[in-house]
Amino acid sequence: MYLYHGYVAIASGIFCKYWLILTSALNICSVQLNAYLSIERYLLIFHSQFLQKYKIILHYLPIIILIISPFFFMIGMVNYYPCENHFDYTSWACGTACYTLQPVPSTASWIYALLAPLFIICTSNVLLIARVIYQKRRMLQRNVWKKNKKMLIQLLSVTGVLYVSWVPISISSVITVLHPNQTLYELQGNWLLVGLIYLAVLFSPLSSSMAMPELRNEIRLWINRWLRRYRNAQTYPAAVTRLQTE
Fold first, then answer.
1. G-protein coupled receptors family 1 profile domain spans which residues (predicted)?
2. 172-180 long-range CB contacts below 8 Å, 24 or more apart?
C-alpha cells in the first residue's frame, strides 16, 4: 500500500513502531542465521562428531536465540531508548527510529545487526575453503580447484548476495550518522540503497538451489516438463490447421 499510495497504511506511532520492529528484526534474523550457519557448516565438515554430541547446545539453542533476540533488541531500542521518535508517514517504515540518529547506539546496532554477521560469514567461508584445499593438497590430490569448483560457487553465491544487499546500506548508514551527507540521504530516500536489501530475499531460492543438488535436479526436470508441454501445445494447433486446409 505504501508503494502504491506513497504514505503508510495507518498514520500512527504504534503502527510505525510495529513496522520498524518487524522489518528490522526479520532482517537481522536473516543475516545472523546465515552467519551462524556458516560456522555450523565448518563444524559439520570438520567436527561432525563433536557437533552431533552437543547438537542441542550447538544447533538448536543458537538458532532459537538468534530468532528471538533481534525482536527483543528492536523492541528495546525503538520503545525504550531515551529519545523521542518523530515519524514521517510519507517515508518507507515511517522514516527511522530516533536512536539511529545518535552516533553511539546507531553504530553499535549496525555492528551487532549486520557488520559483525557479515564479517563472520566471510571469515568462516574463507577458512572452510582454505582448509579443504589444504587437506586435499596434503593428500597429494591434483586439480584441487577444479574438484572444489561447485563448493566455491555455492559459497560465493550465498555470501555474494548478502554482501551486495547489505554492505552498501550498512556503510552509508554509519557514515551518515558520524558525518551527515546529503548525497547519502538522497540515495537512501530514493531506494537506491534500501532496495538492494531485497536482493537477498529474491535470490535466496536461487542460491539455495545451487547448494542443494536434489532441488536443482527437481527444478531442471520441472522446467523440461513445462517446455515439453509448451512445444506440444504449439505443435498440435499447427497440425490441425494443416489438416483443415488439405
1. 1-208
2. 173/100, 173/106, 173/110, 174/106, 174/107, 174/110, 177/100, 177/101, 177/102, 177/103, 177/106, 177/107, 178/103, 178/107
Q: Which three cell numbers stand for residue 54?
A: 552437543
Q: Are residues 166 and 120 in contact, defined by beta-carbon separation less than 8 angstroms?
A: no
- CB-based burial of residue 106 (10 Å sphere; 0-12 exposed, 13-18 middle, 19+ buried)? buried
CB 136 within 8 A of CB 147: yes
Q: What is the pLDDT of residues 51-67, one digit of tens each?
A: 888 888 988 999 999 99
- At 89-98, the pLDDT tens digits run 877 778 778 8
Calpha distance 101→19 (Å, rounded)? 18
Q: For residue 210, give the H/E element and its range.
A: helix 204-211
The rounded distance, in Å, linking the Cα atoms of 232 and 240 is: 12
The alpha carbon of residue 70 and the mean position of all alpha carbons in its chain are separated, in whole angstroms, by 15
- Reading the block at residue 129, the C-alpha cell is 575453503
